[in-house]
Amino acid sequence: NFWGSNCEISCAESCIEQHCYPGNGSCIFGGCSDTNCLKSNCDNDTAVCTDGCKDDRTGPYCAKYNIASNSLITILPNGNESPSLVSDGNIKSCVITQGSKIMVQVDIQEMSIVTAIYLTLNVSSVIGGNHTIYVSNSSSLSENRIYHNETLPTEINDTTIFRYLTYEARFQQTNISIEICEIGIVGCPPALYGPLCKKMCPKNCRGPCDLVTGNCLFGCSNGWRGDSCSIDVECITIVDSMTCQPLLVQVYVSFISFMLQIF
């Protein structure tokens, strides 16, 4: 499981059984032991998943939660393939569409906090076009433009909240074709947070919580305070309330005693 002149370097965890050549560290058996990669295939040197991701994951290492996995896809003009191929995790199953104006819309079906977007698309022409990406609360294109350039993006890092993502491409020629293989959207459903969205947001949050800390972003339900909306307002004004948590009451009483000693 080690390589190098003094066998001091660990073999990549992506190597099957973590076995690698002593001279260069490349995987002996190839493939990937990481079950996040589709078909368990990854690059021996970089550990990047070569066929895509499975289990609602996205990103080059399939280490991030993909809220686009169960999304609704609209492609104009329509291709012959099913639009669902755009969000199936397989970067080698693609939809081909053609025209001077091409639109792909991803509906993740509920407002969610998003931190990154991954796109796997191929354009048939080297002639420049305009590539624009919008995010919105409705199917309208004009709400919020997060990308506009003549080059095609592969990754966009931008924290925002939306339900619809729309990619639009415009070309001077009419016979330009685009191969749309995968669109991954990194985020969590509104009630969850964490790297793989396995933690529940505090129950008293009003809306979604921060994906990293779990703190409530849009305030608390009535009667609650604090970053995680865990402080009962009644505990602040009515110390003897039976609804107060003992620890909170203890802290409050200690604080009052401390203040009385000062004054």
UniProtKB/TrEMBL annotation:
GO molecular function: scavenger receptor activity
Record keywords: EGF-like domain
Protein name: Uncharacterized protein
Species this protein is from: Mytilus galloprovincialis (Mediterranean mussel)
